[in-house]
Amino acid sequence: MYLWDRAHVIRVRYEEFVPLNNYLKLLTQLSQDPDVPKYASNLVCLSKCPNSKEIERKILYFLLDKRPKKADIYWFVDVNVTDEPYQAEYTVEKFNTNNIIKIQLKLGFRIDQNLNVFLRQISTELVENGEIEPQSNSYSILPNRKLGDFRFVFIQEILSHDATLSAWDSFVLNTKLFIQKFTASPSNWFGLDTSDVYIERVPMFLGHSNRVILKRVDQIIAKK
């Protein structure tokens, strides 16, 4: 438990969050770009950012830089476990858009985190309230389905060789990452066993590395 808690403290120290407002234009442009193939109708990224107006920088890097991920709606979902055993509440931040939504779930520690079920309920309520447009479903056996497919993305981190941490901090983080290999998968934990789930592995560049700058040396071609 000490190693797990210590690893969390180290991660929080180096975690980088950015304002989503700075990327609304890019995400909206991407969702409407006819030259980019659609990745999902609804792309759900699991977040760990308590601020409703911010997001982890690594998530935006995944969406925009690592082969742009086009979607009709981008959902950013943060799950907060509370001390109230049966609390089940959520908040919505839409940033004055129809295609970028930040959801914060507050679930009591006795509530099963059935993310797929909760998100279906939330999305249906948003459509019925006129907050988002319904999506066409030409190939569905569910006649009253309001939205199309959902694809869930988990960002799974690995410690980079370029991380410059103390020997103890490196040991703590590597131990936590090793233990995570044998614990329940994110799909099982969030009740997404039968859902479309993608796990993206990204390196953690923690600490300040001494970057080596290469110097160009052109070969001198001797004249004959």
Summarize the structure.
It contains 6 helices and 8 strands, in the order H-E-H-E-E-H-E-E-E-H-E-H-H-E. It has helices at 2-14, 24-31, 57-65, 115-128, 167-180, 186-189; strands at residues 17-19, 38-47, 54-56, 70-82, 88-93, 100-108, 150-159, 196-204.
What does this structure look like?
With 224 residues, the chain is α/β, with parallel strands linked by helices. It is built from six helices and eight strands, in the order αβαββαβββαβααβ. A six-stranded mixed sheet has the order 5-6-4-2-7-8. A two-stranded antiparallel ribbon has the order 1-3. The chain is globular and about 75 Å long. The mean pLDDT is 79.
Helix content: 25-40%
Q: Give the CA-CA distance, first to last residue.
A: 72 Å
User: Mind telling me the C-alpha Rg?
Assistant: 21 Å
Shape: globular
| Low-confidence region ranges | none
* Overall pLDDT metric: 79
N-to-C SSE series?
HEHEEHEEEHEHHE
| Helical/strand content category | alpha/beta
Strand content: 25-35%
Main sheet summary? 6 strands, mixed
Number of continuous helical runs? 6
- Strand element count: 8
Could you give the order of strands across the largest sheet?
Answer: 5-6-4-2-7-8
